[in-house]
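Entry 14. Ran structure prediction on the chain below.
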Amino acid sequence: MPNSQLIMAGFLWQLFKIYVMATATLTKRSQRIKPDLKLLVLPKQQSKKKEAAKDLSKSYNEFKQFEGQQYSGMKVGRSHKWYYDKGEWRETKITPDLWEISYAVTKRRAGKAPEGSGVPVGTEYHWYILAHQNVRKLNANDYTTSMTGLKFKLAHRRAEKDKWSATPKGQRKKLVKLLKEFITQLEKEPVPIEFEYKEKKYKGEGIPISQTCKENVCYELEIILNDQPLGIIHCTDKGWKMKNIKDQGLIDAIGEKIALWYE
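Output, structure tokens:
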């Protein structure tokens, strides 16, 4: 073989060895354990979650003001949504129109409570409920049932305490005050409501909830239309809202009549 060919062959062989070595090096590097970017980001995310939980816990437990009244817990204006398990409702007829009722069930939050928020496990509450229960018979054994109304806290007992926040006498005093205010509210002239919506005529009234009234304007009213209680309408910064009516156009029509009456 001529010298020139031998030189060329040697040169190509050296290039081939360099290529093989370079490829092997790259392969080894690619086989090294790569850092998990998720693990690098996770501590920051966990830190943010912990900070958010602390903020929620702090916000829940700190003292707040509402029309001169100091309170703690969930901020006025916020809402809960619950699902109730299969419970047991018992009722006994006392007079032609009066029934004794009892109801026991476990209720479950729709979703999950934010970490760090809420009261400790074991906390107890005593509520008094004023509500409409609307029932329609479906067959011999089944009825539809819906409730709209108000509930009022008479007392609570903290998990680490043996005593309630109010004695039985104090709770009765609060209840008497509530019922007197409710009677006064019912005796006041309601807001007349009459309009036509989607070719249907509506006529009824809105009964102001006195605790939401400021300067002779009430921002929440119990609505009764065509002799049917529909629930409570709320005037919010995002417009008129009702929990049991899905047609926002109907809600807006009701709210418009209320606004016009207060002008």
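The helical segments are 3-31, 37-61, 168-187, 248-262. Will compare against last week's run tomorrow.
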